[in-house]
């Protein structure tokens, strides 16, 4: 009988916090959150978003981490260990599949951010006088097969290189370098933005509460943003939690992860919109803000050449800390369940992810006219993972904790390393129990049916 290998663990609590926060902090924090806030009532949306984070995101992230720490296994192995049913390991497998699919197209977009570091260094932004001109250049780059595939390959290579060296020497060490660098760069950009003429208008756009814009759709947007921004439902937090010591405090670690994720999103909003308003550009351009508007913004700023470079370095770092966690979810499964060597699993599945992702990269050029269910490869991978796999997986995790494994068993595990919290604040127990048994599964179910376009149909049936 083959002797079971000793499982890797984080070397320090701060290593886990930075790695887990890095998994949560991604491209969505830097570009999506700011413009969603601006389009949905500013501070009013932020207040609703924070409530959703507390009522939905925090209880589910605690649940994912505690399952991982309890079993010291990947998502499939964890559910096997805690349940005799064959259903639940399949749910864990869906999380691994989601991580695999997301990595295949997310790294394509991440490659754009890396490619734009070179665009910034080369001074190409100074050729653009309008966002439309910058947008045409971006389109031309993504239609260039060699450009988009090459940068996709570069980003997958960086991801593979870090995960290859393991939990402590790869992921943890990388996070200890990348995350402080991300914070430093972002705060430099924020401070610079606050010193610009017109910065107050950017702050007003971001933080002025416009309650007239708050609708049912806004609340759903806040719910979805709270869920997706924390990397829930894909097994990343569960996998990272499996490398924790039994003595680590899960509730405080979860709060710190949520806090850092939200802080980065808000600071990014300040940095971006103060700059956008100071140069008279439109803040309501949605997803085009990063690659269409900001290149023009940088050309109109004092020191814009320097700040354009560090901004896209920031964007690439945020993406990299997320792709690392996505690959680790897949690797952990094959190391735990199939007995593979880490190095072999990283290279094989990093390579397979790259091959699977090529059709997504080609969706912007040679395969742009090839559609499945009316969607390109890229859009199909995005839709299937984000709209179905992730919310379904998150919903099932909350159901598992609340009704299958049981909150009593979960609370016993949560007490390890967190005795003082439960003694000083005993009211947290019934609050967390209520949230994970009722609020979380119902909220995520609403997100799920809204994501696949069924919510309006259901509402219309009762009208």
Fold and architecture overview:
With 463 residues, the protein is mainly alpha-helical. The chain has one domain (13-461): Amino acid/polyamine transporter I. It is 76% helix and 0% strand. It is built from 20 helices and no strands. It has helices at 13-24, 27-39, 43-71, 75-82, 87-122, 131-142, 145-164, 166-194, 199-207, 216-228, 236-241, 250-278, 294-299, 304-336, 342-362, 377-404, 407-415, 419-424, 428-451, 455-461. α15 (342-362) crosses α16. The N and C termini lie far apart (64 Å).
How do the strands and helices of this protein lay out in sequence?
Elements: H1 13-24, H2 27-39, H3 43-71, H4 75-82, H5 87-122, H6 131-142, H7 145-164, H8 166-194, H9 199-207, H10 216-228, H11 236-241, H12 250-278, H13 294-299, H14 304-336, H15 342-362, H16 377-404, H17 407-415, H18 419-424, H19 428-451, H20 455-461
* Average of pLDDT: 92
Helix and strand sequence: HHHHHHHHHHHHHHHHHHHH
- Which spans have pLDDT < 50 for at least 5 consecutive residues? none
Q: How large, in whole angstroms, is the Cα Rg?
A: 22 Å
- CATH fold node name: Amino acid/polyamine transporter I
CATH architecture: Up-down Bundle
Number of domains: 1
Question: Would you tell me the structural class of the helices and strands?
Answer: mainly alpha
- Label the overall shape: globular
